[in-house]
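Input sequence (278 aa), recorded before submission:
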Amino acid sequence: MPRHSEFARLGITLDRELRGGHQSRVWLATSHQGRSPHDLVIKIVDGAVDDRDHVIARLRLRDQVARYDDRVVPLVPLAGAMVNRVEHCFAIASPRIDGRFLDVTNRPDVERMGRALARLHQSLRLVQAELPMVRALRTGTPVEGLHDNHQLLHGDFGPTNLLLDGEGRLWILDFDDCGYGPVEFELGNTLFMALFETSPSLNQPSDEYRQFRRWFLGAYRASAELSVSELLVDIGLQARSDALRYWLSHLDEAPIGIKNATETWHRRLRAFAGIIQP
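Predicted structure, token format:
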């Protein structure tokens, strides 16, 4: 984490940490740019765990998509730039939005998710970026069956990256994992996250998960331009599940959030993945 004084040249003061992880940390900050001080949210990304070109490509993508989809949280330039190097990290600013994360057991929330993803996919088809396939599809054995509907994907479309403000407006956060892939994989990935939220393991889907699945896929289909196959969605879910199992067995190849997690968290992930533990 850079020294707080290093952010002064960007015209901001870090106030308090909102959340943190192995790859990035998120802070509430005060901006001194403009006529009066105002709040910003600053994401600080460790430059050692991501390629600068990919960081910039994802930020440009997010900026472009926000022009088509007003639910995407826009970027705020600091010192005239969308991304700034602060010591060994990248600093990225967004406006502060007060709200709550979505509830995977609440039908209106889940249906909002489905509609929002359908619209986001429409917007993502209008832009291009120099990005690879999403990471889970580049992991382990190549996935058979997912050949069509390839386009840019959000890559991490789940309840903790969606914020509902006090006026009932939905906001989409965090394009850190975006890349190319089939839309059915994205749908399967969201189902994977709902499984993790609601079920003891991948092999023991709860009634809450089955309910989420029905509401989410129903809302997506009702709003999407292109039809999707539920069989291929299940293949996408399986691909995401296989990626987790692969990463847990090859931690040196895993995303930083899994690689550097605590042993307690590794045990929880193994239990969820159905991996027999010693």
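Checked by second reader. The chain is about 35% helix and 20% strand.
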